[in-house]
Amino acid sequence: MLYPNDAYNRMGAAAASAQVQTCTAKAQEAGISPRLDNNAVARGATEGAAVGGAVGAVGSIVSGGNLGRTAENAAKGAVIGGTAGAVRGSFHNDKPNPTYRNFVSRCLRDQGLEVIGWN
User: For 93, phi and psi rounded to 5 degrees?
Assistant: First the structure.
């Protein structure tokens, strides 16, 4: 969202929108993504698999399972936990990238435009 300052009013909404497109393209050409690429899905799957595997193994040991049964239960727990962790991670992979926003804002400021918010 741009503030309708003198530069905005001089160039008009269409030209200001074109400047936004230019600045966002420059940010992406520089390798900056609009969203943080924090690998939340992969991290969630890894964490879930580790927790699920541990729970499966401990549950088997506590219930008096033998070593083969313990390994089988640990593997099952890792699969279930990994799947649940990946799903959970997918819901947390949508954070805006502050570097991207700073880049675009500065690019627009260089054109005399003022960013007042992000949709």
Answer: -115, 35
Q: Are residues 7 and 48 in the same domain?
A: no
Burial bucket for residue 2 (CB in 10 Å: 0-12, 13-18, 19+): middle
Q: pTM for this one?
A: 0.55
pLDDT, tens digit, for every residue of 46-56?
Answer: 666 666 656 65
What's the Cα-to-Cα distance from 52 to each of 12, 67, 82, 91, rounded to whole Å?
A: 57, 17, 7, 19
Burial state string for 76-86 with b = 16 or more CB within 10 A and e = fewer than 16: ebbebbbebbb
Round to whole Å and give the CA distance between 66 and 72.
10
Domain that holds residue 7: 1-36+96-119
